[in-house]
Amino acid sequence: MKKPFWLVAWLLVIELAVVFVLVPGDWTNRTIEKESRLIEANLGSQARTWIYGKADQWYQAAMMDSGFYEGIYRTMIPSNDQRANSRGMQDMGSWWFRWVQSRIEAFADIVYQFMSRFALLVMWAPYMLLLLLPALYDGLMTRQIKRTNFDYASPVVHRYSTRLSGGLLVGLVIAFSAPIAMNPVIIPVVMMVCCVLLGLMVGNLQKRI
Fold first, then answer.
1. Assigned domain for 208 exists
2. What is the pLDDT of residue 49?
3. Does residue 79 lie in a domain region?
4. Which residues lie below 8 Å from residue 142, measured CB to CB, with a gap of 6+?
5. Which whole-number Å values give the CA distances from 204 to 53, 144, 146, 161, 195, in the listed order?
6. For the segment 21-76, what is each residue's pLDDT rounded down to a tens digit?
7. Cβ–Cβ < 8 Å for 104, 76
8. pTM exceeds 0.85
9. Where in the sequence is the domain holding 160, given as residue range(s)?
10. How far is Cα 148 from Cα 1, in angstroms, rounded to an integer?
């Protein structure tokens, strides 16, 4: 279990590093706007308003009200007073600070995009629960039936349903940070497939004597 966890962690770190260094400053903004149009086209304007309203609240609390954005900005970029007090060095590294400012703004946009996608996940969660509970119940009843007869509990089905559901969830987490417009239908489809796979996993747990 440790190796997959660290693999996912490293993939996320590498992805964020690539996005932070290479993605143009306004790219994520354009991605958010395009994704917003996709959400409105597929789910309606009311869903779009709810999703970005939640994302705004979370972003304001996590980045602005907490002082995180201001802190990282002041840590990386000197203020006008600090530059003025650096006699003879006021303009040194101005190009560097402009680049750092664009990277900070790109990072903030990535955080907002992640939050908007998580809000979409939260919106779908109650509906997915209506599918997850019957899937788990069906899997549990199937396992109980197999314990009373000679039906075969397949370790192959159990293993691959577990791995596939875990892989889909990991892929979804990584996709949340990807600077590309994501169709909002992808999230409920992945969640529905995971619900079915979890039901298969429970139904094929090895029987105990």
1. no
2. 94
3. yes
4. 202, 203
5. 42, 10, 9, 9, 14
6. 777 767 888 888 999 999 999 999 999 999 999 999 999 999 999 888 888 888 77
7. yes
8. no
9. 25-203
10. 32
